[in-house]
Structures are given as C-alpha cells and as structure tokens.
Design brief:
It is a single chain. By secondary structure, this protein is of the alpha+beta class. The protein is about 40% helix and about 15% strand. The strands form 6 sheets. A 7-stranded antiparallel sheet has the order 11-12-23-14-19-20-21, with helices on one face. A 6-stranded antiparallel sheet has the order 13-22-15-16-17-18, with no helix packed on it. Strands 6-5-7 form a 3-stranded antiparallel sheet, with no helix packed on it.
Length: about 575
C-alpha cells in the first residue's frame, strides 16, 4: 500500500502517467510540460486543472530540477525492484524484450508493436513522443489474434450485423453499410449484459432455493399431518372395533339370560309334573286295591269319582331366542356400509396422490397459490370512460363508446386501462385473471405514479410498467424491445405473482401450470430528483417510502358481451 501511494505522487494528473519533464505552476502543482502546455492551448484562459486558479498571463514554465532528481531516483529504485522481483508464474504474460534467461512478467501489451513489455522496457512508450500514441492494454498472450489476418491491421471495431471483430479497412470493404461500434463500447455493453445475466441466474437460483425450502417445509407439514391422521384414524377404527366387541358381549349376555329364564321355567314345569305323577301313582294303587276287594259294599262306598282325577295340562315349547339369519343379515349390511366407506376413503387418497403426480408444477405454483393469493377489486376512479365495470368490481369490458363521466386526475385517458383498488409497497402477492374470449389484452403491475394522461405511453419497465400482452394470437412480454413468446396456446387463465423486495413479476399459465415469463431486477421504487437525493444523502430529509405498485388490466376492445369480460377470479388452491 505504501508503494502504491508513493507511485501516485509521481503521476501526472492529466495523462495519469509518470511525469515527463516535470514543471510547477505558480500555485505549486506539478505536471508534465507537454501535458500542461497542451491543456492551456485548448482553453480560453490559463487555469490550473487541479485547484482552478486562473493566471492573467500564461506562466513561463521551467523544469522543476529538484522534483526531477527525485523522479529519476524513484525510477531507478523501481527498475531495481523490477529486476529483483520474483520470477513470473506459468500463467503470466512474459516480456518480449527481456533476455531469455531473465524473463519478467509483462505490465502492458502494445497493439501497435504487437509486443508485451515489462515495466522497465515499457518506459519508451511513456517518454518517447512517437510512441505515446500507441495503444496499451493489459497483458495478453495472443496478440496475433488482435490483428486482421486479411489487412494486417489492428482490430478496433465490432460489426453488429455480422457479430464479428473487424479492422478499419474491413469496414470500408465489406461492412460499409453495417452498424459498427468500437471494441471498447461493445465490450462495455457485453459486460453489462453479463452482469444482467448473472443477476437473472442468481435470481433464478434464489427462487429455486426458495421453492426447495417451500417443498421441504410442505413435506414436513405433510409428514406431521400424516402422523396426526394415522393416530386419529387408528382411534376411530379402534373405537369401532371396541363398539363391535361391546355389542357382541351385550348380545351374548342377553341370549344367555333368556336361556337361563327358559331353563328355570322348564325346571318348574318338570317338578310340577313329577308331583302329579306321584299323586296319580297313589290313586292308581287305591283303585287297584278296590278292584281286588270281594266286598261289593265297600266298592259302592269308597269308589272315588272319576271326574275328580287330575287332568292338568302343562304346555311348554322350545323356541329359538334369536334367528341366526337375522344376525347374519344385519352383519352383512354393516360390512357392506363399512366397505363402501373405506373404499371411498381409499379412492380419495389415491386420486390426491395421482393429482400430485400428474402436476409437476404443483409444488412451485401450488405453494405460491396457497401462501400469497389475495382478493382484488377494480378501482372505478381509474377506469377509462369507455370501460364498464361490474357491480362487484371483479369484471371489466370495453363498451366501445365514451361514457359521460367526470374527468378526474386519477382516470386513464386515452389508455383504455383500469387499475386494481389495492396498492402494494412491500411483500409478495398473487392473483389470477380469466381471459377467455379476449382477442387483445394486457395485464400486469405498474407504479402508482404512472402518467395517466399521456397520449403515447408504452407499457414497458422504463415507464414503470411490467406487463404481459396478447395481440391477435401473439403473446409477448412488453419489454424494450418486446420479448415475443411462443406458448403452445394463448393462455386463458393467467396467474400474476409479484415479489416486491425480490424485484420479480412472474406470469403463469394456470391451466397447464407452466411459467410464461418473469421480469427480474424490477425497479418498483421510482428514481428521485438529484437535489432530493443530495439532501437525503446529507441528512436533511428522511428516506422516502417505497413506491406503491398496483395491478393493471386492459380488456379487448372488440368484445362487447358480458360473457367475454376480463375477470378477476378466485384462486383455486
């Protein structure tokens, strides 16, 4: 760091190179004599380029001998340091003038000399006037590639039409009518495109990482939900089994009780019959004894009446307490109902898994729909006089004729568009639009500060608009120039997702669950005037709030039926 600061003290502030014939101005600043005299030759007055002090007459400049001696000492020390420097690495470009046994790393390559020089051998290009106009670049190994093979001239230009590097003679011979720019300009443009591409890739990577995190989070929630479902289902089935067992035990106990009552009744009847048998046996013995007596008078006297013999009936029949077919029929009906319910549950689980398998974009778009869906309504105070809005503020169509309504500052005219009622200055949101029957349309988001009375206002990001449009079958993102898209069919149901902090506006074909286009690096917050920026930087005013953005809708002007209206529809999650 100290060495670099010391070298800065010996650099001319005009040519930014080591001093050549150093001279001092009356104000005390040092310059190369050719540099300061050339500078004054192009100015109306003699002025110091650093402190801006003006001199009434052009000063007589003399070489600052003391400073020159210091400069020579510095050059000698730097040359000695170059000699003592470490040997070049395998990837370094070597000096073409150094001895083969003591090659040093090149500091610059000359496109005129087609040679590379170390710091010591580069001095003539800084001190010799005839060499100062040579073009020096950072060291390159393939200097031959910088020369035109046909004309042996330095390649200095880039042909836009042929996308090739050419020399000045090539431009005259074969590229005279082509658009050509300098290599530096083309390189600057390509570096800008490279940075933009890197930003887009980084944005895509961030989006993919976010999607992966969302999927992983969903899987964790799904696992937790599965465990909860298994527990609850197990409890329900266990309760059903317990109920069946309980009913079985109750039915068995009831049958056993009925059987015991029947057996007790049978035992009572049997005892009664046994007592009657004993009585009948005694009477039979008496009758037998009378029949054997010879005393007729006794027979007449003691013969018992025949009608008095007991003739009691004891009816008893064994009946089935429960028909087996009744039980079987009831159980069959219960089994049928249970099977139907379990099959219904199984089909629902199977179809849900099938839907998840058939929709490969469901993880990405589904997460957006679940987490960021909002409800939108249209703002009638922004609608062009020819637009007709529904009562609920969710549909708009172009009536074709201007209505007699107040011309207020918030109303668009002549653009046939309308904004959403809600504005957003942070976070993420998602909504869906039905476009069936629309031949030409535009949807997206715009800054709330958009010019609403401009006659010719392209809806491009430069004007604070990020929109997707369809024009008689051709779908395009309204960039500058427009990015023509080639979907398999014109989308009829489009989802719009906005990430304010991430600078993203994405459009999805909801029917096929595919990404249509994404604007990246969106500058939603409008630029501030220079004076306001300076005041803000110095702390005189607070930092401004984020600019609000609002959804924009333009229906087709060729459809007049209510069925063909552009509609904001609820998100199916």
């Amino acid at each position: 760091m100290a060495s670099a600061n010391a070298e800065d003290n010996f650099l001319c502030s005009i040519c930014l190179d080591i001093f050549n014939e150093p001279v001092s101005t009356p104000c005390g600043h040092n310059y190369c004599k050719p540099c300061i005299t050339g500078y004054w030759a192009t100015q109306d007055s003699s002025q110091c380029p650093l402190c801006k002090e003006e001199f009434q007459t052009t000063p007589d400049l003399h070489v600052n001998t003391e400073f020159r001696d210091m400069l020579e000492l510095f050059k000698k020390r730097r040359c000695a340091a170059d000699v003592r420097s470490s040997p070049p690495g395998p990837a370094d470009v070597l000096c073409d003038l150094c001895h083969v046994t003591a090659k040093r790393s090149a500091l610059k390559s000359c496109l005129v000399c087609l040679a590379s020089y170390c710091s010591g051998h580069l001095k003539p290009h800084h001190s010799v006037q005839a060499l100062k106009w040579h073009k020096l670049v950072n060291p390159v190994k393939t200097l031959g590639d910088r020369m035109c093979k046909k004309h042996n001239k330095v390649i200095e230009f880039f042909c836009k039409q042929d996308q090739s590097c050419v020399c000045v003679l090539c431009l005259k011979d074969h590229h005279e009518m082509h658009e050509a720019v300098s290599l530096e300009e083309e390189l600057k443009e390509r570096k800008t495109k490279l940075k933009s591409a890197k930003r887009e890739v980084n944005s895509t990577l961030a989006e993919r990482h976010h999607t992966i995190q969302g999927i992983q989070s969903s899987m964790m929630q799904s696992r937790a939900e599965l465990e909860r479902t298994k527990v609850e289902t197990g409890k329900a089935l266990d309760a059903l089994v317990a109920l069946i067992v309980s009913k079985k035990m109750m039915l068995m106990e009831l049958l056993e009780g009925k059987q015991r009552a029947a057996e007790q009744q049978a035992e009572t009847v049997v005892r009664q019959l046994q007592l009657e048998i004993v009585e009948n046996n005694l009477r039979l013995a008496e009758l037998e004894e009378l029949s054997k007596s010879d005393d007729d008078f006794k027979l007449l006297k003691d013969l018992p009446p025949v009608s008095s013999s007991p003739n009691t009936r004891h009816p008893f029949s064994v009946r089935s307490l429960l028909q087996v077919e009744t039980v079987r029929s009831a159980m069959a009906k219960m089994e049928e109902v249970l099977n139907e319910q379990m099959e219904s549950i199984t089909r629902e689980i199977y179809h849900e898994e099938q839907r998840r398998t058939e929709n490969p974009f469901d993880d990405e778009l589904g997460i957006i729909q679940v987490q960021h869906a909002i409800n939108l309504t249209l703002d009638p105070n922004t609608a062009h006089p020819s637009l007709i809005l529904s009562e609920d503020g969710t549909q708009v169509r172009d009536g074709g004729e201007r209505r007699n309504i107040p011309d207020i500052p918030t109303r668009f005219d002549p653009l046939h568009v309308v904004l959403g009622e809600e504005g957003f200055s942070s976070g993420k949101f998602y909504y869906e639009v039905q476009l069936e029957g629309q031949t030409t349309w535009e949807i997206g988001v715009v800054r709330e500060s958009i010019n609403r009375k401009c006659i010719d206002l392209p809806l491009t990001p430069e004007n604070g608009c990020w929109t997707l449009g369809c024009y008689w079958g051709r779908c395009q993102a309204n960039t500058n120039p427009p990015a023509v898209l080639t979907p398999s069919k014109v989308p009829e149901r489009v989802g719009v997702f906005v990430d304010y902090e991430g600078g993203l506006v994405s459009f999805y074909d909801v029917d096929v669950r595919a990404l249509i286009y994404t604007f990246t690096g969106c500058a939603f917050t409008a630029g501030r005037p220079f004076l306001r920026s300076v005041l803000t930087f110095r702390g005189y005013v607070g930092m401004p709030a984020n600019t609000k953005i609002r959804p924009l809708f333009r229906p087709s002007a060729e459809q007049e039926s209510d069925t063909a209206a552009l509609r904001i529809i609820p998100v199916r999650r």
